[in-house]
């Protein structure tokens, strides 16, 4: 357990060196955007100042989006490069000789990278609410009684349940995606040469196959749904939309769990029986 904790800590710290600079960049952009919003809320400022502030604010939004894209891409890169280096690279000799089971190594890697994806989601979520013009929304009087009644109608139809299932589905799909990247790296290291091309090919081909299987499963869930398409009254349009979203999230959750289990056992088999260290 002590060795496992050290493995998780080392991976976590190594990934932080790649991602934290993007967090800082996104935080700076968020603060700048918020400052510009306070300036624009002042109705007494000159039109030229308002226009120039709007231009700089747009540039800040662009920088914010670039930071988000960088965080996502860097996280995927960290999964691939850290898994490769610590399993198949020079560090692999140390990792694979630790007195721990193969599945424990995979779980340690999975926990580390999954934690970073969750942290990414939380930070992006809160910074998003930080940069949107909340003052303008309340000033526009959006929260009128009729709007609140519509929100209540949504809640009556268990939208909260659908939201929870949707979040769980996203988390399980993240686990599935990480294990899939593990699999592609493992397949790439089964060949002597053209490993990068092999990994990319495995990602495209296997990803396409898995996506097709998921699509077929989700399609059949709609075909055999007895209530699907039975809402003829336009007043039930909201309920029909909710049902479609609910069924989709439930189907994606089920298929992602199944594929995650399959991917875990395949990766464990390859790491245990087909390990090819450089």
Explain what the structure shows.
This protein is an all-alpha fold and 278 residues long. The chain folds into two domains: 1-140, no CATH class; 144-277, no CATH class. It is built from nine helices and no strands. Helix 2 packs antiparallel against helix 4 (102-131) and helix 7 packs antiparallel against helix 8 (195-223). The longest helix has 42 residues, at 47-88. It starts with a helix and ends in a 5-residue tail after the last helix. The model has no long low-confidence stretch (mean pLDDT 78). The chain crosses the membrane at residues 20-40, 61-85, 105-132, 153-172, 204-224, 250-271.
Q: pLDDT under 50 segments (min length 5)?
A: none
Share of β-strand residues: under 5%
Structural class: mainly alpha
Could you estimate the helical fraction of the residues in percent?
over 70%
Beta-strand segment tally? 0
Largest β sheet strand count, sense and barrel closure: none
Number of helices: 9
Mean pLDDT rating: 78
SSE run? HHHHHHHHH
First and last CA, distance:
27 Å
Count of the domains: 2
C-alpha Rg, in Å?
Answer: 24 Å
Q: What shape does the CA trace take?
A: globular
Keywords: Membrane, Transmembrane, Transmembrane helix
Transmembrane segments: 20-40, 61-85, 105-132, 153-172, 204-224, 250-271
Q: How is the topology of this model organized?
A:
Layout: H1 2-40, H2 47-88, H3 92-95, H4 102-131, H5 134-139, H6 145-156, H7 159-188, H8 195-223, H9 237-273
Helix pairs in contact: 1-2, 1-4, 2-4, 2-7, 4-7, 7-8, 7-9, 8-9
Features:
single chain, mainly alpha, 2 domains, 9 helices, transmembrane, transmembrane helix
């Amino acid at each position: 357990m002590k060795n496992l904790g050290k493995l998780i800590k080392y991976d976590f710290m190594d990934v932080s060196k790649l991602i934290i600079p993007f967090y800082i960049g996104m935080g700076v952009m968020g603060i700048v955007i918020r400052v510009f919003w306070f300036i624009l809320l002042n109705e007494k400022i000159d039109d030229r100042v308002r226009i120039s502030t709007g231009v700089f604010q747009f540039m800040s939004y662009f920088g914010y989006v670039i930071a988000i894209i960088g965080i996502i891409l860097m996280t995927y890169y960290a999964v691939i490069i850290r898994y490769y280096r610590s399993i198949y690279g020079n560090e692999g000799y140390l990792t694979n000789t630790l007195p721990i089971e193969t599945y424990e190594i995979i779980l340690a890697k999975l926990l580390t990278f999954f934690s970073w994806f969750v942290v990414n989601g939380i930070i992006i979520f809160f910074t998003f609410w930080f940069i949107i013009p909340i003052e303008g929304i309340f000033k526009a009087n959006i929260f009128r009684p009729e709007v609140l009644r519509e929100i209540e109608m949504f809640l009556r139809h268990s939208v909260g349940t659908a939201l929870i299932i949707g979040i769980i589905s996203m988390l399980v799909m993240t686990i599935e995606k990480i294990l899939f990247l593990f699999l592609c790296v493992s397949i790439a290291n089964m060949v002597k040469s053209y490993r990068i091309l092999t990994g990319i090919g495995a990602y495209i081909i296997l990803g396409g196959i898995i996506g097709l299987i998921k699509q077929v499963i989700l399609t059949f869930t709609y075909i055999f749904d007895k209530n699907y398409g039975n809402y003829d009254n336009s007043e039930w349009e909201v309920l029909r939309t909710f049902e479609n979203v609910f069924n989709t999230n439930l189907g994606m959750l089920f298929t992602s769990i199944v594929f995650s289990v399959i991917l875990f056992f395949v990766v464990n088999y390859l790491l245990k029986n087909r390990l090819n260290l450089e």
